[in-house]
Please model this.
Amino acid sequence: MTPSLNVYYRNTRIKQYHKENRALRTETTINNTYDFGIGKRLCNLPKLREIGFAANRRLLEVERLSHDCMLAEDTFQAINSPVAVDRQRASGLRFADPRVQSLWHAIMLFRLLPDGFRSADLRKHLASLTGRLPEDISQGAITYQLRRLRLHGIIERLPHSFCYRVTQFGFRAALFFTRLYNRLLRPGLAATQLPNAANAPRLRRAFDNLDTHINASIQHALFAA
Model:
């Protein structure tokens, strides 16, 4: 059985699978043209083809960024630091801050939305990710987070609308910070707290060995003094 990836939007589906186990095939099927405000006459075929190709490219771009989402050191520091753009200021998106991690997770949910997202969408997802009710998050708090994400280049506002779109850089940053936190920092710190035993994780043994050498160096320095 050949595994496949299926992405749905109303009556449209993107299917991705390995064609004869040799090539990755990505195809979009639009079953109702009115989902995109387009009629069913043949003269509309070029518009539908453009929508289908754009959807395929967006999915492939997301997968490409997911495969390689590393950030340079200066980029990492810039995201964690305050930013100022055209007399507007915003605080940094500090790594491992629980509120910032919730923002990163929400950003990943919004990446594939064709029409962008609104402040109400961000409020709903932040409430779910932080264990609160949407009405417990004020509009001022949402506006603050949107401005912070926008000034850092994580999102951009769509012209003549109240909708926002996640930038390519923003998605790369979201992937990097969520993976770094969930796959390295959290399990790594948990491993260092396990009881000392013969079958303790290698990371825990390495920390114990480092602690032993540090204590030995301290004792040697005191003896020499």
Notes: The CA atoms of residues 123 and 147 lie 14 Å apart. The helical segments are 45-67, 73-80, 98-110, 119-130, 139-151, 168-192, 202-224. The mean pLDDT is 84. The longest helix spans residues 168-192.
